[in-house]
Fold:
Amino acid sequence: MTYDRLVCANCAAPVAEGRCPVCRANRERLQQEGPFAGLNPAALLALLVVLVAALALLAHQTA
Structure:
């Protein structure tokens, strides 16, 4: 999940603005997650399907 849509429970402002210490801490934590953290499950599933198809095509060409 990306922080641009989150609302802080402490100050009721968007987390992306970083108005309070809680917002700033959560924004830092969310930015430190891996490169696939912002992808939704459907995008991850599509990426997995493409990867499996590419591996199957490679296996078929070498056989």
The chain has a mean pLDDT of 84. DSSP finds two helices and no strands in the chain.
